[in-house]
What does this fold into?
Amino acid sequence: MNPALSKFSRVDLCHQPTPLEAMPRLSEKLGGPNLWIKRDDCTGLATGGNKTRKLEFLVGDALQQGADMLVTQGAVQSNHVRQTAAAACKFGLDCHALLERRVPDRDNDYETTGNVLFDNIFGTTIEFRPPGLDMNAEALQIVEKLRSQGRKPYFIPGGGSNEIGALGYVSCAFELLDQFEAQKLDVGRIVLASGSAGTHAGMLAGLHVAHSNIPVLGISVRQPKERQINAVYGLAKGTAAQLTDVPLGIESVQVDDGYVGDGYGLPTKGTIRAIDLAAKFEGLLLDPVYSAKGFDGMISLIQDGFFKTDKDVVFIHTGGSAALFAYETELV
It folds into this structure.
């Protein structure tokens, strides 16, 4: 463990370091910079994904507090809920999840296949909620109810995105910098899908603590640019403050909201194109909610000449391929 993180409770959930792989065929196809992909779809827990890094710290904190169950929330096809449910099983905890029917006009099996199938395999108890509610507030009400019944619930916000969970991507930032040095990369930018903000914020905080000036571009999958910037900055600032007295400036937060399309969880033509290109040229599976929208943003920006071609560009693959099964009719 990096010494900067040694004071925090942590459990072992993640296969790490995850690979940092070149994408030569796609780089040639797009005619832009050399592209690399950080394989955080390979973190190991329940088919992997970015939430596993966050859960190392969140579950560590839960166990330290004597919790006997985890309570969290997400959209119906939440990657976070799937990984939280698996982590709970690994440490003998119960798991209760609230799933928001956030994505409209889905097929009948949307609430039984993909991530929801895995939730059920892990024995998660599930409640569904209509769209538009404050889901963290809804989950906290459940926490209080369970506490009144004698349980010891530990609340994890959507995406595991708080100042404890974001430490997982502080750790990832340190890991990436070691890999850049080992592979002699000259990285001009890191690109990732920006959703509940924890991955984006943790990466910014980690680079800041490590005194790295590599810029991070978040491709928003849901929120308008200014709202996402504020969410990421608030969390990044708080996360960094746990590790350094040097303040993190809002100017470090870069967000592009041009690839959201009709809304969260609704694939665009660019989303489908990104899934197809990653599969056909690099044998990679992107998910239709997060990584493919982020990848679409990167592809489009390459075609617009946004990136310097003499610098390496690194995309963080946050996992989520289980959700592909819930979008079959739109993909094939």
Observations:
- The chain has eleven helices and ten strands.
- Residues 28 and 210 are 32 Å apart (CA to CA).
- Residues 225-241 form the longest helix (17 residues).
